[in-house]
């Protein structure tokens, strides 16, 4: 089914952000694993899979709307330690959240309600799951100190 060209272009821009989130979680989870932080590794490995599935849904939607998916991913920021990794991931989630919100608005304007529902679902994963979890980790580090936090993630 032929999609609205502006919606297709917007979805193509969103793919880049989801692929970046996937790859940033890929490198950070592997760093956590290498540091022996098994718990946070498992959590971030799971986030990586969710970002891949977000990208997958958007790619499938672009194909369905008779567009050509753009597989260029946005740049990633690799942290150097637990705190800079968490903060880089949180910054990326905030950025993606803003882009999704604008996408929901555009889909609404163009009357593409199925795409809107897909993006809205990804927004709740972004806000209520990924962003919320990252905010909690940063708050925990402030509360209990980095050493204690790191110990809790071994
Ligand atoms: Fe995502
Ligand atoms: Fe996310």
Describe the structure.
The chain is mainly α and 154 residues long. It has a single domain, classed as Ferritin, core subunit, four-helix bundle (Ferritin, Up-down Bundle). It is 81% helix and 0% strand. It has five helices and no strands. It has helices at residues 5-34, 38-64, 82-110, 113-144, 146-152. α1 (5-34) runs antiparallel to α2 and α1 (5-34) runs antiparallel to α3. The model has no long low-confidence stretch (mean pLDDT 98). The site of one fe (ii) ion (FE2) has 6 residues, from α3 and α4. Residues 1-145 form the Ferritin-like diiron domain. Fe cation 1 binds at residues 18, 51, 54, 127. It is an enzyme of class 1 (oxidoreductase). It holds the Pfam family Ferritin. Keywords: Ion transport, Iron, Iron storage, Iron transport, Metal-binding, Oxidoreductase, Transport.
